[in-house]
Design brief:
It is built from 11 helices and 16 strands. With 324 residues, it is α+β, with helices and mostly antiparallel strands. The protein starts with a strand and ends with a helix.
């Protein structure tokens, strides 16, 4: 009889409220009793996932926010054991990009125990900060340097827990007032070294953010490539051009055939550039804040990141799986 492990963040949800739903779903689909693992501040999910794999489970369910999902997925990368999502955070970035249910635990558990599988890419990154040892991590959605990383570093965690995404408003304002720009050199897929000054650079495995923001419109979670955006605004006009591109063209025009025809008449703007590639090596002139999947990872002076294609299996609804 198959067994699942459920790794949950007790800050995000109550286990007692889930147990009846889990029991119903596992019994309906002929699974054995689920193993439960609670995350802690010191062990946010990695150790629990390794313990679950030692128990030879057939499925791991990550119940929590983006941080919990990333840590669990990092341990499952390359294992072949499917990851199911029970979203319980403010962003739920991977669930959004896979068009999974965000606020229906019962449906999410039906997908976990009775859904199909989909192989997706993961990003692997090596981060170096000065003379410190290089640290390696995996991520599912995006890695970012600049505005978004500074925003996350400035976010009040207590306010975020109470107000969700509204907590980021103050942090965004603080980041936008920061006049420092990134001075960086990069190589894409082993090509020549290029030098650029930018406000923000984001390396994406997926393209959608909360509030229906489509930042990387051509990003696909299983295409074996990163989509990279470089923001280089010069003053207010530059920011207006970026907003028009992201919110109007990506968010509105791109979603209809008529809108896509109109997009063909618009010009590219210097303030925003898109790149594609499988490996990016990047060096900065000074330490800068870096984030992975919405969590701050301190500062970096250089990074190397690459795509690990279709290295993670995720559980998706059966009706979606059968239509693929």
């Amino acid at each position: 009889m198959k067994r699942a492990a459920l790794i949950y963040n007790p800050i995000k949800l109550e286990a007692d409220e889930l147990k009846e739903l889990v029991t119903t779903a596992e019994q309906e689909h002929g699974w054995g009793e689920t193993l439960w693992f609670e995350t802690t501040e010191d062990e946010p999910g990695g150790g629990q996932t390794r313990d679950a794999l030692k128990e030879k489970v057939d499925l791991v369910i990550a119940a929590g926010g983006d941080g919990t999902v990333r840590v669990v997925a990092e341990e499952l990368r390359g294992s072949g054991i499917p990851l199911a999502l029970l979203p319980a955070g403010t962003g739920n970035l991977l669930a959004r990009n896979l068009d999974l249910t965000l606020d229906d635990a019962g449906h999410a558990l039906q997908t976990a125990f009775g859904g199909g599988d989909r192989a997706i890419d993961m990003g692997v990154i090596e981060i170096r900060d000065g003379e410190a040892a290089t640290k390696r991590h995996s991520y599912l959605v995006m890695a970012g340097l600049g505005l978004d990383a500074k925003m996350l570093a400035n976010t009040d965690d207590e306010l975020k827990a109470k107000a969700g995404w509204l907590a980021y408003v103050k942090a965004v304002a603080a980041a936008l007032r920061d006049k420092n720009v990134l001075h960086l050199k990069y190589q894409l897929d082993g090509g020549g070294t290029r030098t650029v000054r930018a406000h923000t650079i984001m390396i994406g495995n997926c393209g959608s953010l909360p509030a229906n923001i489509l930042l990387l419109p051509e990003a696909a979670v299983d295409d074996g490539e990163f989509d990279i955006v470089v923001l280089r605004p010069e003053g207010v006009i530059g920011w207006v051009q970026i907003m028009v591109k992201i919110f109007w063209e990506n968010g509105v025009l791109r979603r209809t055939s008529a809108g896509r025809k109109l997009m063909g008449l618009t010009k590219e703007v210097r303030a925003l550039n898109y790149l594609k590639g499988k490996e990016l090596v990047l060096k900065l002139s000074r330490p800068e804040e870096i984030e992975l999947d919405g969590d701050s990872f301190g500062q970096a002076t250089s990074i190397r990141t690459w795509v690990d294609p279709k290295s993670l299996t995720v559980r998706i609804p059966a009706e979606v799986s059968s239509g693929r």
